Amino acid sequence: MLFSYRVLDASGAVRQGAIEASCQADALELLREKGQVPLELKAQTVAENHRKVISGAQKIRHTDVVAFVRELATLLKSGVGLSDAFSTLLETTDHPRMKESLSRLNTAVLAGERFSAALEKSDFGLPQYVHALARAGEATGDLGNALARSADQLEFEEKMKNEAREALTYPMILVFTGIVAISFIFAFVVPRFAGMFQGRKVDLPLLSQWVLGTGVYVHDHWVGVLFGFAGVAVGAYLLFRSRAARQHMARVSARLPIMSGWIAGAETTRWTSMLAVLVQSKVPILMCMDLAALSVLLPENANRLRSVQDDVRRGKRLSSAIEERRLLEGASLTMLKVGEKSGQLGAMLEHVASYASDKHRALQRSVVALIEPVSILVIGLVLGVVMVGVVMAMTSLTEIKL
Predict the structure, then answer these.
(1) Does 320 have pLDDT greater than 80?
(2) Enclosing H/E stretch for 40
(3) For the residues 247-261, what does the mean pLDDT come to?
(4) Is the pTM here over 0.70, yes or no?
(5) What family is this protein classified in (predicted)?
(6) CA distance to 31, 114, 155, 289, per residue, from 64 (Å)
């Protein structure tokens, strides 16, 4: 049960927030254990929670979770205790669902549960590597820096997604506009020309028959065609929300001459940045490789990373296993070998990830620069075919031979 409260803390300041407890007496006891003097404590009613659900306030966004990890890391690095950090976050958080989740997390920690275990049971939906970093931070006594690296990685992954989304926005708008224009021509322009041939015995060329026939069909069934396009759009959106669909799309794109470099660069950036964060946080190397394999989309890359994990388990050097699997080459592989010899593997992996990220962005710009003219060319060819088909039909009507 969730209770909202107002209390006096040890410094005499008035604080307010929410706390999870089985009853009011337990909530009061939890507040007193933290050295706080309760001023007001009341249970949140079902009606209040219902209003929050209707207003959409119950949904925790990914940005809210990243902000929570970043703020908690900052407080812990500043020397604030875990319990006080939770109190500060509860005081500054206005999100009802976030308050509820934080209260449950705080209650579990106060009850003696390890933070990493409580975090894993929470409803924040954090990736597995965040939990691994939290466990490593607890083991080394450096939880603040471990969470800070988690926030860095979460923000980096979100940045990669946003960059790809922004890069493809204009080509997608261009393609959508072209489809709308072509559909309009087929639905409303071509049928007007087709009407001129009704009742006349004219030997139309095959291209003209296809263009006019398509225009008449789209005009007569425009509602079904419209719903068909909408269904395809919604189906594609729902389909690509699943990881399996994204993996299949990445696998197909990786076979294309131009897209292959872009996909490979993105994959390398993902697993090297993940590995750098984990190694710097003193996570065991075998667990690092397992989590790095989970971070990539292509199954073949995941299998190669797990093969590297098996080689390292048998005693082979990480750089040798990665070189044998051709996961890195050139300057990146050299930096990895230098990092192993100097004992600065985490720092060198960070440089490798930065280098891979720069290459990926350059390839992304090249791919996007190529997609735009190709889209324009395809749309222009379709429109040209329609116009040629109509003109050929008109010349057949007037018996003008080209």
Answers:
(1) yes
(2) strand 37-43
(3) 74
(4) no
(5) Belongs to the GSP F family.
(6) 25, 23, 12, 28
